[in-house]
Automatic annotation (TrEMBL):
Domain UDP-3-O-[3-hydroxymyristoyl] glucosamine N-acyltransferase non-repeat region, first and last residues per copy: 19-85
Entry's EC annotation: 2.3.1.191
Gene source species: Caldithrix abyssi DSM 13497
Gene3D superfamilies the UniProt entry points to: Hexapeptide repeat proteins, MurE/MurF, N-terminal domain
GO BP terms: lipid A biosynthetic process
Role summary: Catalyzes the N-acylation of UDP-3-O-acylglucosamine using 3-hydroxyacyl-ACP as the acyl donor. Is involved in the biosynthesis of lipid A, a phosphorylated glycolipid that anchors the lipopolysaccharide to the outer membrane of the cell.
Family: Belongs to the transferase hexapeptide repeat family. LpxD subfamily.
Catalysed reaction equations from the record: a UDP-3-O-[(3R)-3-hydroxyacyl]-alpha-D-glucosamine + a (3R)-hydroxyacyl-[ACP] = a UDP-2-N,3-O-bis[(3R)-3-hydroxyacyl]-alpha-D-glucosamine + holo-[ACP] + H(+)
Coiled coil: 312-343
Protein name (record): UDP-3-O-acylglucosamine N-acyltransferase
CC terms in the record's Gene Ontology section: membrane
Length: 344
């Protein structure tokens, strides 16, 4: 593409030759001649002088910048658009419904959908327009899948679950497995039937090998726009609010309510039956044991407000020195006591 075409698409301000040929995008420290890169994080500005890229996207003017550039409001978002411009067509490996797929005759599949070989589509399943089902996917009875969804290999969607539009489920995702419900009685655990389902709303993306359990009764709900990383466990009857992001290896216990626009970093553990309010940020490896107020930033296990936890961490680093000081003071105090006894 020509640089001007890219600038027009980004609605950015072009500084440089509009007819410059751009062959694709690249990282600022790895780009080759012909590629376009971007600068959104100031720590990468050191690569400006050495980058081999032919053009760059920025959102703040850089004094003395000789490289052709496009000035935009948000360089990170703009580069996302560039990646899309240069992304080849997806999901063109197969077309229509493969004869090697197992499709129940009661399933209702839009003619524009693609069902790959070795997929299984169960009774009374509904699949919408342009949805793509890859090999090894299993969709059990009464499942509803909306338009423009992609289910990658070895995804399992259990009975009665509902998936909205433009949902992406990566390899190995399991939707609607039984919740971890057992009643202890007479020294044994007795399984509690899990008769609810999972509802995934529009524009949700779920990473590889993540699992979302069906509700005991009612629904486990992942609301619109949520982004869930690989290896995340979400238990029965959890509610996750709009546009919340959850990073890898997080575990969320049953009946937790998570608000809108929450950010949960990696390896976070959350106990059951609590509420995390809107716009909360949870730092990595935190343990959440009680409700978190709106807008709070928490860290640690048990998680505390970030400022308080940092002070605790700073104090902990000084602990050996403080222990030595206490011992020294104890020795001085004992010496004073001995001196007083001798005077008596």
């Amino acid at each position: 593409m020509k640089l001007k075409e890219i600038a027009d698409t980004l609605k950015g301000e072009l500084h440089g030759p509009g007819d410059l040929e751009i062959t694709g995008p690249g990282k600022i420290d790895e780009a080759a001649p012909g590629q376009i890169t971007f600068l959104a994080n100031p720590k990468y500005q050191k690569y400006i002088a050495s980058t081999r890229a032919s053009a760059i996207v920025i959102d703040k003017p850089i004094e003395g910048l000789a490289l052709p550039y496009i000035l935009v409001a948000n360089a990170y978002v703009a580069f996302m658009q560039i990646l899309r411009l240069f992304t080849p067509p997806q999901h063109d490996y197969f077309a229509g419904i493969s004869q090697q797929a197992e499709v129940d005759p009661t399933a209702q599949i839009d003619p524009s959908a693609k069902i790959a070989p070795q997929a299984y589509i169960g009774p009374n399943v509904k699949i919408g327009k342009n949805t793509v089902i890859y090999p090894g996917v299993v969709v059990l009875k009464n499942v509803q899948i909306g338009d423009d969804c992609v289910l990658y290999p070895h995804v399992s969607v259990r009975e009665d679950c509902v998936i909205g539009n433009r949902v992406i489920l990566h390899n190995g995702v399991v939707i609607g497995s039984d919740g971890f419900g057992f009643a202890p009685f007479n020294g044994a655990y007795h399984k509690i039937p899990q008769i609810g389902n999972v509802i995934i709303e529009d524009d949700v993306e779920i990473g590889a090998n993540s699992t979302i359990d069906r509700a005991t009764t009612g629904s486990t709900v992942i609301h619109r726009g949520c982004k869930i990383d690989n290896l995340v466990q979400i238990a029965h009857n959890v509610k996750v609010g709009d546009h919340t992001a959850i990073a890898a290896q997080t575990g969320i216990a049953g009946s937790v309510e998570i608000g809108k626009n929450v950010v949960i970093a990696g390896q976070v553990g959350i106990v059951g039956h609590i509420k995390i309010h809107d716009k909360v940020i949870v730092a990595a490896k935190s343990g959440i044991s009680k409700d978190v107020p709106e807008g709070e930033i928490v860290f640690g296990s048990p998680a505390l407000p970030m400022g308080k936890q940092k002070r605790i961490e700073a104090s902990m680093r000084r602990l050996p020195e403080l222990i030595k000081r206490v011992r020294d003071l104890e020795e001085e105090l004992n010496a004073l006591k001995e001196a007083l006894k001798r005077k008596e």
